[in-house]
Amino acid sequence: MNKLSKKILALSLTGVMTFGGLTTVSLPASAVGNGPNYNGNESIQTSILTTYEELVDFLHVQEAKQSALELEVIGETVKGRDIYMAKYIANEDNPTILFLTQQHGNEQLTTEGAMEFIKHLGTGKTRSVLENVNILVIPMLNADGAMGDVNFSTDNYIADGDRHLTRANANNYDLNREHDKATAAMQPEARVLHENVLEVYDIDYLIDLHHQGTQSERDGKYVSGSILYPTNPNVDPAIVEQSKKLGAVVFHEIESKGWGHLGKYNGGSGANIGRNGIALRYDIATLLFEMRGMSDHTNPSAVLGQKSNGYLIKQTVNTLDSTVKAIADGSIHTVDTSFWDTLPFQTTRPAEEGDE
Question: What is the value of pTM for the model shown?
């Protein structure tokens, strides 16, 4: 990322994030114009987004600074890029949460948020949290798609910048449709996620962070995102309830900000989808969070311009921060889940495209 691009991305965050107190920062009402109700029709630049190489450099810098942080390479992408996981494990008996971003390479702002969250964990203001919850972060599962280094044409992708970002991995597979296969039959990125993370660590919670299109709404207003628990009928009801509690923490956190506006995602029940297959396979409570607007796509209605970057990154950080605090202090066990009974499924304005 060049200096000008870094400055542009930094400016998009100015005034909406203060990393010493992430969950207490509010957006002023005047900022909503660049929030969920903003149409985002300006130029879409991928050059301001963190590259894979910059992510790796960032992770190593943070590991050197943070005594609680350990990096693990869980495997490689199709093109041979190392896949990193940031680990904060103080006590193996603690509850553990995994945050997963960029199964789809064109859904990048959750990765930007995950990076800011990792930086926040090194500030020294999260000691009590890190003593009571283990945190795993995979900030870019589909690095080949994120870099547009794929074995198929990207000519129809519409964003400007130094690269295109693709939904699929380099072999043109959707990694979020791999989760019901035998691991040996999975694409490399999904296989190492299962074999080296999900089968190795005792994980209690997972938030799978994605982006959807821009035209979804609830109660006549654009949503800033949508959430959903596992809906496969074979998932243990106790795991579904635990997943609903995870979603409740997120919902109450984001809706309380004034600019956040969430709907229920209208997703499928197939075991091949991460939130279903992982819950079914490992008895892990899972939550899908679909942020509004993708970083690149073949469909213009799916892509949101960079003036919305700030609130989307902030929404990601608030999500991660609030859930680890709720797990650490035990409040996740008593959170009010009744909103799920009345939360409407988001509806679609014309020309929408979005699929978890």
Answer: 0.90
